[in-house]
Amino acid sequence: MTGDIDLGGVFVHPLLIAAFLAFVAAELIGWALAKARLYRFVWHRGLFDVALTIVLWAGIAGLITGGDPAAAFFG
Known about the structure:
Number of strands: 2
Helix content: 55-70%
Number of helices: 3
Order of helices and strands: EEHHH
Largest sheet: 2 strands, antiparallel
Number of domains: 1
């Protein structure tokens, strides 16, 4: 088997699940930062949100694949 995860008969790659979880986590963190008014210390909110999502995606992918986060993306 290729290491895909079976979700109701549909095989999904673990990186897709990690991307979804990273997006949800980044949205929750962004909401908390906005409520706490901490975005005023961020120079470019859009760039910060994208970078936060990518960092979370790499971390979650590393946890799911059980290895180095960079190895999950670059082999």
